[in-house]
Amino acid sequence: MIDFLRGQVAQLEREYVVLDVHGVGYRVFCPNPYCFAAKNEEPVTIYIHHNVREDAILLFGFETKEEQKLFRKLIEVSGIGPRVALGILSGGNPKAVVTAIQQENINFLIKLPGIGRKTAQRMIIDLKDKLEEMGGASLFDPIPSGMEIPQDNNLGWPEAREGLKALGYTDAELDRVWQVLKDNVSSDEAVDSVMKKALKLLYAG
């Protein structure tokens, strides 16, 4: 099974990256393909979950080992397949997802793509103890106890901003756009949706 791939980004699409590894192009579905935009001219490492089923072999990729681990934990939950797990990581900041599970914050979890109340309850039951067992100063350390997940901050903006900077936009341009944009996006809006809205404003000048 493939655990990671290292190569050059040959193509970026809304849902996936094509990674050139010694002349072979691997299509890798990612939560946020744009995070690899700045690395087009240099080799990158993408951590892989290799999914094999009867009708397809699919690669799901992540920027960090922690995201890869969280993805693998999510697909252990009944009712969450790889596509839904990818949507969860795309729709919410991974650390915030872990914190919501630890805090049993169902209201946050049901806002994630493809997650209903029953699935959110299963996520808490199945994963709360498992995430605690992993330990370490990482993504799996939730926001400190007693501190709620911020509801008025857009969780997708930091990643969207990173992708936009990779496309060549300056901090000043992005700060100006965010002042206009922040009241028109929800706290759990997906990264690609935030990027599209920001790009529309940037193109308009």
Question: What coarse outline follows from CA principal-axis ratios?
Answer: flat
Spatial order of the strands forming the largest sheet: 1-2-3-5-4
**Quaternary class:** single chain
Strand content: 15-25%
CATH superfamily of the largest domain: 5' to 3' exonuclease, C-terminal subdomain
CATH topology of the largest domain: DNA polymerase, domain 1
**What is the number of strand segments?**
5
Assigned CATH class of the largest domain: Mainly Alpha
Overall CATH architecture of the largest domain: Orthogonal Bundle
The largest pleated sheet is described as:
5 strands, mixed, barrel
Give unreliable regions as ranges: 146-153
Structural class: alpha+beta
Instruction: Quickly count the helices.
Output: 8
How many domains in all? 3
Question: How far is the first residue's CA from the last residue's CA?
Answer: 47 Å
User: What string gives the helices and strands in order?
Assistant: EEEEEHHHHHHHH
From the structure above, extract its key features.
hydrolase, cytoplasm, DNA polymerase, domain 1, 5 strands, OB fold (Dihydrolipoamide Acetyltransferase, E2P), alpha+beta, 8 helices, 205 residues, 42% helix
3D architecture notes:
It is found in: Cytoplasm. Belongs to the RuvA family. Residues 152-205 are annotated as: Domain III. GO terms for molecular function: ATP binding; four-way junction DNA binding; four-way junction helicase activity; hydrolase activity. The chain has helices spanning 65-74, 82-91, 94-102, 106-109, 117-134, 157-166, 171-181, 191-204; strands at residues 4-12, 16-21, 24-29, 44-53, 56-62. It has 205 residues and is α+β, with helices and mostly antiparallel strands. It folds into three domains: 4-62, Nucleic acid-binding proteins (OB fold (Dihydrolipoamide Acetyltransferase, E2P), Beta Barrel), CATH 2.40.50; 66-134, 5' to 3' exonuclease, C-terminal subdomain (DNA polymerase, domain 1, Orthogonal Bundle), CATH 1.10.150; 157-204, no CATH class. It has a five-stranded mixed barrel with strand order 1-2-3-5-4. Helix 7 (171-181) crosses helix 8 (191-204). The longest helix is centred in the middle third of the chain and has 18 residues, at 117-134. It is flat and about 45 Å long.
